[in-house]
Amino acid sequence: MSQALVIAAHGSHLNAESSTPTFSHADTIRATGAFDEVRESFWKEEPHFREALRTVDADEVYLVPLFISEGYFTEQVIPREFRLDEWDPELWGSDGTSADSATLTAGDTGQTVHYCGPVGTHDSMSDVIVQRAKSATGDPDVGEGFGLAVVGHGTERNENSAKAIEYHADRIAAMDRFDEVQALFMDEDPEVDDVTDFFESDDIVVVPLFIADGYHTQEDIPEDMGLCEDYRDGWDVPETVDGHDIWYTGAVGTEPLMADVVLERAADAGADVRAAIEQVRGESGASASGD
């Protein structure tokens, strides 16, 4: 039976860069040959969620949301638009960070769809955050003497938004790699505006848990942290703020190792992609859990 991977991402009418990571990770996975077909789909761009399955010939589809948290998009919008009529969030049995997968039948195409939890709550995202810190500093051993801030949007509308950030901050803290690890937010306490108040370390790596670089990661957060007065002037990496060197990485979703998390989601749902996972990890210079 032929197998396909469909990646579901938000996209944007306003920011052309929003879809770039999605296409990049799809290309990486396509090159492994792990699936007969790999398709990108979007909520705010073409090709749209609603038409995605009709472009896929395979009978069996692994559907992976390129979203950070479990909530409105992953529990309502995507299942509705893909017409997964049997869907119920209870099928994931999740507490907000532990979604796995559910096997459903697409209402209009009859395809078997393995609907996976979002990339953002998968355990291997912790490795991508660490890899992002390595990429930003150029130091594969980064950790000792450094603090790490994992930054999320935070919102009262979706409590799981903060849960995902805190989940990975806790997992990375347990690795004992960095001297300090802190979850920070844009719209709730503790706020990223005050990043230097939460660290004693002279060096702080700041990794925003966003899929793509856009308004928040390229304008709001740098200005809020004091890296610059006007984002259009740019900033140095590192940039000194209140006596600390801030290593700001930009969106975690642009890290090449994100393709691994997409594959891990599919693997957890039953796809035979272990060789592809090893290939992607090898190409990105990452090794297994927490290194």
What does this protein structure show overall?
It is a single chain. By secondary structure, this protein is α/β, with parallel strands linked by helices. The chain folds into 2 domains: 3-121 and 255-284, Rossmann fold (3-Layer(aba) Sandwich); 125-254, Rossmann fold. Helices cover 31% and strands 19% of the residues. The protein contains 8 helices and 10 strands. The strands form 2 sheets. A 5-stranded mixed β-sheet has the order 2-1-3-5-4, sandwiched between helices. It has a 5-stranded mixed β-sheet with strand order 7-6-8-10-9, sandwiched between helices. The longest helix is centred in the middle third of the chain and has 16 residues, at 159-174. The protein is globular. The relative contact order is 0.16. The model has no long low-confidence stretch (mean pLDDT 94).
Task: Tell me the layout of helices and strands.
Blueprint: E1 3-9, H1 20-32, E2 37-42, H2 49-52, E3 60-65, H3 72-81, E4 101-105, E5 112-116, H4 125-137, E6 146-152, H5 159-174, E7 180-185, E8 203-208, H6 215-225, E9 239-241, E10 244-248, H7 258-268, H8 274-284
Parallel strand pairs: 1-2, 1-3, 3-5, 6-7, 6-8, 8-10
Antiparallel strand pairs: 4-5, 9-10
Helix pairs in contact: 1-7, 4-5, 7-8
The total count of strands amounts to 10
By CATH, the topology of the largest domain is: Rossmann fold
Q: What is the string of SSEs from the N terminus onward?
A: EHEHEHEEHEHEEHEEHH
Query: Based on CA inertia axes, which overall geometry fits?
Result: globular
